[in-house]
DNA sequence: CTGCCTTTGAAGTAA
DNA sequence: TTACTTCAAAGGCAG
């Protein structure tokens, strides 16, 4: 079972490390996996059916499934979720007493050690980190500082981040606490921007260049109103148990540092321009059409001046952005429709656990593989996701749960249906037809095999390749 | 320029 | 309840 806030002190980290190394075989697999990202990539790109993979099998789904359960329960995740929910209920009922998974806030700490060189390349030390098992990535939560941060999550994280940033600014080479932490833990590499996983990791030291410190570092003053931000009381619930009417008055704990510090969980983009670092300017521009109930005065910003990153105006939204401006050939009906859409801000869905994981790990995989194609990256990430220990996955599930909770509190009336462009059944973009192998039909693999042949496995659908791979590996083993 | 690809999970809808 | 659909992120790629 996941450690639900168990122990405390250094035991937390110790436990985590214990978990990491509990299954040595698993650990080896992960080392193998992480050190062979390129192989991974090759596997993904060329074919999932690769005999070397069957031997390596460190990152395959089947491996994750085959891996002997470290504990006796049959459905660990189910139980983990149950316990998580119980823990969440306990937490949510009152003050935030720290996450059940002490590790996860830690990975949100900005990597002040700067694994990347100024030119964006990976520093040697960072490269060494790349090969560290993912477990280690996520499990170094043992320092009291981290526990302290956990207690403050997600509010104090900002300040802590600033603190650490200040430390980093003081002496980029000196082993400040942040550095100690960063050196101790192979923080995920994020070449151009911040650690994407969560609000806590929405910082980038790139934004804290000594010559150009962000305004919020100089004083904790709202840049918009000039009013000093109230310090985040350590005992305040990070979830802002708000009534709907008060929602807009509360700064999004994830987003209030977005303009300065980088990519939020719900990045605000403008004009279809994907930028990981929405500036205050772009934010202001993009937030100008918010309805009153969601938009605090002064250009749709929260009273703190910081919008929620989940909100994206339709002009920002990919499918309607620039075409809105020059829709000369659109009908009046469409125009009016778009007008309505314009008035309605696009509130993005909260990220699920896997999405959070992807955001965190994408940069790392990209760095390892020197690959940018998301489809391939996502395949790797999907496999790594399955290779994650349940404890580690649980961190992300818990994080996603908090995201949803926060999202729910910030946008009480929001529904995922709101983002259904054409409504249910009317596809916004045509999804690929379901391939034969995507069903649970056990004979499905043979369909792709029959259709394309063994020598054209690249054309096979993923499940078919996967199943065939398992088949092959079974043959090999036998 | 737009949509697809690719992943998992959450949430919505229809039967 | 089950099955299916859409969307969330990401960036290259094809039409």
TrEMBL record:
<keyword id="KW-0678">Repressor</keyword>
<feature type="domain" description="HMG box">
    <location>
        <begin position="347"/>
        <end position="415"/>
    </location>
</feature>
<feature type="compositionally biased region" description="Basic and acidic residues">
    <location>
        <begin position="19"/>
        <end position="43"/>
    </location>
</feature>
<dbReference type="InterPro" id="IPR024940">
    <property type="entry name" value="TCF/LEF"/>
</dbReference>
<dbReference type="GO" id="GO:0000785">
    <property type="term" value="C:chromatin"/>
</dbReference>
<dbReference type="Pfam" id="PF08347">
    <property type="entry name" value="CTNNB1_binding"/>
</dbReference>
<feature type="compositionally biased region" description="Basic and acidic residues">
    <location>
        <begin position="332"/>
        <end position="343"/>
    </location>
</feature>
<feature type="DNA-binding region" description="HMG box">
    <location>
        <begin position="347"/>
        <end position="415"/>
    </location>
</feature>
<keyword id="KW-0010">Activator</keyword>
<keyword id="KW-0804">Transcription</keyword>
<protein>
    <submittedName>
        <fullName>Transcription factor 7-like 2 isoform X15</fullName>
    </submittedName>
</protein>
<dbReference type="InterPro" id="IPR009071">
    <property type="entry name" value="HMG_box_dom"/>
</dbReference>
<feature type="compositionally biased region" description="Polar residues">
    <location>
        <begin position="315"/>
        <end position="325"/>
    </location>
</feature>
<feature type="region of interest" description="Disordered">
    <location>
        <begin position="1"/>
        <end position="97"/>
    </location>
</feature>
<feature type="compositionally biased region" description="Polar residues">
    <location>
        <begin position="47"/>
        <end position="61"/>
    </location>
</feature>
<dbReference type="GO" id="GO:0000978">
    <property type="term" value="F:RNA polymerase II cis-regulatory region sequence-specific DNA binding"/>
</dbReference>
<keyword id="KW-0805">Transcription regulation</keyword>
<dbReference type="InterPro" id="IPR013558">
    <property type="entry name" value="CTNNB1-bd_N"/>
</dbReference>
<keyword id="KW-0539">Nucleus</keyword>
<comment type="similarity">
    <text>Belongs to the TCF/LEF family.</text>
</comment>
<feature type="region of interest" description="Disordered">
    <location>
        <begin position="315"/>
        <end position="347"/>
    </location>
</feature>
<dbReference type="GO" id="GO:0000981">
    <property type="term" value="F:DNA-binding transcription factor activity, RNA polymerase II-specific"/>
</dbReference>
<dbReference type="Pfam" id="PF00505">
    <property type="entry name" value="HMG_box"/>
</dbReference>
<dbReference type="GO" id="GO:1990907">
    <property type="term" value="C:beta-catenin-TCF complex"/>
</dbReference>
<keyword id="KW-0238">DNA-binding</keyword>
<feature type="compositionally biased region" description="Basic and acidic residues">
    <location>
        <begin position="63"/>
        <end position="92"/>
    </location>
</feature>
<keyword id="KW-0879">Wnt signaling pathway</keyword>
<feature type="compositionally biased region" description="Gly residues">
    <location>
        <begin position="1"/>
        <end position="11"/>
    </location>
</feature>
<dbReference type="InterPro" id="IPR036910">
    <property type="entry name" value="HMG_box_dom_sf"/>
</dbReference>
<feature type="region of interest" description="Disordered">
    <location>
        <begin position="422"/>
        <end position="444"/>
    </location>
</feature>
<dbReference type="InterPro" id="IPR027397">
    <property type="entry name" value="Catenin-bd_sf"/>
</dbReference>
<dbReference type="GO" id="GO:0071664">
    <property type="term" value="C:catenin-TCF7L2 complex"/>
</dbReference>
<dbReference type="GO" id="GO:0060070">
    <property type="term" value="P:canonical Wnt signaling pathway"/>
</dbReference>
